[in-house]
Amino acid sequence: MYKMSIYDDARALGQAILDSDESKKVLEARVAFDSDKDAQALIAEYTEVKTKWDEIMQDTESDKSVLTQIGETLVAKEKEIKEYPATYNLLQAETEFGAFVNSVFGLVKATIQGETVSEGGCDPSSCSSCGGGCH
Predict the structure, then answer these.
(1) What is the CATH classification number for the domain harbouring 27?
(2) pLDDT(122) > 60
């Protein structure tokens, strides 16, 4: 049955993606992030401020004058999160993994559409070379 082999191939592709270096980097970064109490605190602080922002924005009767201060706090927290090693590494690994998965599925899509694409599909590190703007 051809249909079953397609599903088997899909499972094999999924496993190959899980076995990739990109996937392993995400897992390692997530473990480091999950064990870092300061990283957890940064995310909790950001979430608290973001929730306050959202509540004020949704409440038509609230005093919007505090939004400037809350917005500045949000920007500062985002900067802290992006600069803190555990959160930076996780965000970077997730971004690279997402680009990798997108390139794999881009190759699958191009193949289905009859297009010729080089092995590896789209290389996110050289987007300027193709001008496709896919990322």
Answers:
(1) 1.20.1500
(2) no
